[in-house]
Amino acid sequence: MTGRLWKAAFLSSLPVLMGYTTMGMAAGILLARNGGISCAPLWGLLTSSTSISGALQFILVDWARNQTALMTVALLTFCLNIRYAMYGLSLLERFHGIGFWKKLYLICTLTDETYALEVENKYPAGESSLSYCLLVAALDHLYWVVGVTAGTLIGGVLPFSTKGIDFAMTALFLVILTDQCREKSNRVPAAIGVASAVIARLLFPIDKMIIPTMCLMLATFLVCRRKLEPLTEEIAK
Amino acid sequence: MSKLLYLMYLVLVTAGVTFLLRAFPFLAFGHTKNGRPPRIVSYLGRMVSPAAIAMLVVYCYCSYFQGHTLPEMNYGIAELAAGIVVVLLQLWRRNPLISILAGTALYMLLVQKVLC
């Protein structure tokens, strides 16, 4: 790993440095203030280094406080992060033939932002693309862990009210949804998601709405596949 | 279940599910050279991703009203206003950090100083 490679990876990851430390800190503050747990920095460090997922880090605070049923936790984590599986599908060929441990690390660190940088793949001429991707992944990982852990430390001593800071999670989902809906092919499934959730909420209490919503969504996708599949593909072209 | 034990399970479940999702394409289709997933898998994947995020937005909004009457919540003015600001900023500047921080700051201001 040369200095040139380090410099290139660091410069590419600068926007992520700003984003991850700030968002991580917000999530960390939230965990320390609203998580209802002792040793928040320890849990911040543990969760941020093992899952590296922004939205998850926020929603996890509610789960820690309410001791939400683990089945619900698993399902919501699944819903929240299924997009990572889509990223992997598009990286199958790129990552083909990479050694086991390096591939494992690239998979573990695959976030929205790291994925974007790895797809962009602006490694300096004459350097290894793989080393560049590993370096970017490790830097992003570090920013996130430092941000969250710092937030949990700060959160314990903040002198002002943080009431309402939990809106950051809703805002994060709105941002992801807004960006997804720029693509026309994502608008129909997003509308189906909203409709399924509203119907499920009308029929079930909030803590039991996730499984019915998923069932409604999947049933709609499967039943209407003939109509929906060509639609999404046509627009995608 | 004690809180400590629950938190340990929480870390295991969230990290485990997230890892399996990230690894799924490589585990399922990685062994075949130039392996492509079956059409139904990529179709469902394309559909579920935006639908799930949309569902989570609805879920978040529902959770604000949980256990409160509409007048108690000022009919959701703060939640709606902050949400609209986030979407408009994101459409305009395309910078997640600006959108999220501005929306959250507005929401905190509204619920702490204006609508209380």
- How would you classify the quaternary structure? heterodimer
How many whole angstroms does the radius of gyration of chain B measure? 20 Å
Structural class of chain B: mainly alpha
Largest beta-sheet details of chain B: none
* Fraction in helix of chain A: over 70%
Give the strand content of chain B: under 5%
User: Structural class of the helix and strand makeup of chain A?
Assistant: mainly alpha
Given the structure, what is the number of helices of chain A? 11
Largest sheet of chain A: none
Tell me which protein chains meet in the greatest interface and how many residues each side has.
A-B, 91 and 71 residues
Residues in helices of chain B, as a percent range: over 70%
User: How many helices of chain B?
Assistant: 4
What's the SSE pattern of chain B? HHHH
Please report the distance between the alpha carbons of the first and last residues of chain A.
Answer: 39 Å
Mean pLDDT over the residues of chain B: 88
Instruction: Please mark out the parts of chain A with pLDDT under 50 across 5 or more consecutive residues, or reply none.
Output: none
Instruction: Report the portion of residues of chain A in β strands.
Output: under 5%
What radius of gyration of chain A results from the CA coordinates? 20 Å
